[in-house]
Amino acid sequence: MIEALDLWFSYGDRDVLKGVNFRAKKGEVTVLMGRNGAGKTTLLLHLNGLLKPKKGKLIVEGKKIRYTKSDLKWLRRKVAFVFQNPDDQIIAPGVYQEVAFGPVNLRMGNVEEIVKNSLKAVGLEGYENRLCSTLSGGEKKRLAIASALAMNPDYIVMDEPTAGVDAEGFNSTVEIVEKLKEEKGVIVSTHDLDFARAVGDKFVFMDGGKIVYEGDSIDYELARKCGIRTFFSGELVVVSHDGTIPDGDFDFIAAMGVKAKKRVEKEGINLDIASATLERSILRALEGHSVLLVCSAEMLHVVKREVSKFPVNVKFLASLESYEEKAIEVKDGSKNSLL
Ligand SMILES: Nc1ncnc2c1ncn2[C@@H]1O[C@H](COP(=O)(O)OP(=O)(O)OP(=O)(O)O)[C@@H](O)[C@H]1O
Ligand SMILES: [Mg+2]
């Protein structure tokens, strides 16, 4: 396991990491997300000792890193780093030399075989004799991964591996990461929600130099608050049955709960969605429609909980807090009867 404990770091006098606690395990893909400047790259650079924290500890496989020459050598063997921009990483003129650089330095045997296998793992077999400068951007990104793999690390850290890659490159990066996690721990930072969803086992959000979320799934509502780009989608406007129903050009109108249904009936509003209301409202919004959901007040918290699981834009016109007391009365497990 890689553990960063109460990590602080500043560039000059500006704190960029402010007490970060971060964990990543073998056999898992840990996805780091957050707005530009949140501190993701800075945190990742700590994980293999490219940056030294001002305060806090880095513990890898139970060993506390002391930042001595020998510790850093050990750490960089354990944890490989793949830069966002491959030009920051690629140092050799030729592909073979580039991938062989690490294994030769580490005096690993059978370098030719290692280079061949590493290139194969990223779909660049037969590229040995190419000049690095003649590779496309996507190919360079895969070459950078091959160079990291060649050192056979236990963990591989990748900063935005899918930035600037096409659909094929995306699929191949997903495949590479999926394969890697069978034996290693993978830590990626990304703004690519498709990628995060495709590979992520653990999701960590950073904001303002702090970890603000850690979980097994993406909390989309929080994601948006943290400036994480979610899909372009329509909008779900939720209003309480006793609130003011907005005038708007909605594609679909739905009502959830008896009180809400009574309210729309009273207003003479025709419903477009009459059953499986919440699911279908979310689905329509995901498809890009604008949806108005009139909801019985005591169900608002259920709506809030469920919509946070989907990448859908939601606007609550009623204050949820004012319904919190009522919400407490609705116990878990009553969800189905409510919906
Ligand atoms: N070498 C540096 N010198 C001074 N400030 C830096 C340096 N590197 C990063 N910063 C600043 O530290 C903050 C965090 O940067 P970092 O690169 O870690 O963010 P990030 O979350 O990776 O952002 P992005 O999503 O844009 O890659 C930013 O405000 C950035 O300007
Ligand atoms: Mg970054």
From TrEMBL:
Alphabetical keyword list: ATP-binding, Cell membrane, Membrane, Nucleotide-binding, Translocase, Transport
Highest taxon of the lineage: Archaea
Main location group: membrane
GO molecular function annotation: ATP binding; ATP hydrolysis activity; ATPase-coupled transmembrane transporter activity
Location of this chain's protein in the cell: Cell membrane
Transport recorded as keyword: yes
Membrane topology note: Peripheral membrane protein
GO cellular component annotations of the record: ATP-binding cassette (ABC) transporter complex
Gene Ontology BP annotations: cobalt ion transport
Pfam family for this entry, one: ABC_tran
Similarity remark: Belongs to the ABC transporter superfamily.
Name under which the protein is recorded: ABC transporter ATP-binding protein
Species, as recorded: Ferroglobus placidus (strain DSM 10642 / AEDII12DO)
